[in-house]
User: Fold this.
Amino acid sequence: GSISGFHDEL
Amino acid sequence: MNIFRLAGDMTHLASVLVLLLKIHTIKSCAGVSLKTQELYAIVFATRYLDIFTSFYSIYNTLMKLVFLGSSFSIVLYMKYHKTVHRSYDREQDTFRHWFLVLPCLLLALLIHEKFTFLEVLWTFSLYLEAVAILPQLVLLQRTRNIDNLTGQYVFLLGGYRGLYILNWIYRYFTEPHFVHWITWISGLVQTLLYADFFFYYSQSWKNNKKLQLPA
Assistant:
């Protein structure tokens, strides 16, 4: 999921 | 992190390492499309810009560095290494891959999750990754014979994409609001591009004959 707009997948 | 995503990342890692090792050991890049490798370098460069701004995990940062390092070293090997660059099939690797970059950039400017510099480039890298394999698939069709390492490379890449789709299905059912249409659709398109390659690859294994792709 995008935690604070952050992409956790490579 | 789930087993599908971990397996997908490991398969992706294996694909780039297989390719890098092939080029490094036999000092040849016959059958490898430089255009696809250049596109992948751009994909990683535009996707991992957040490596400087946000830290998610050691694993995440480490893998980003490995993918950046391996993709750029493959391109540098193929372009500038005194022996390797001579085995690059320039006449056959003629896919106009720059024609892929612009539409992906325009599409990212139109369809994205957030209109910020990093987010638009991240979305661009998703769209570009979906089509980055095209020059390589065209080259394989042209040269018609697939030496097994290049075939393995494409096979592993397809496997990584397939595992990622399982990862998204798993996350959709286990994380309440995990919905990322852009990632899912571009990932699906990319995986479908491998589908026909997989068909011919499996055929060649079944009949135990050299992989001949239809012209």
Summary: Chain B has eight helices and no strands. Chain B has a mean pLDDT of 91. Chain B touches chain A at residues 5, 9, 12, 50, 54, 56, 60, 63-64, 67, 113-114, 116, 119, 122, 164, 167, 171, 175, 177-178, 180, 183 (CB under 8 Å). Chain B has one domain: 3-207.
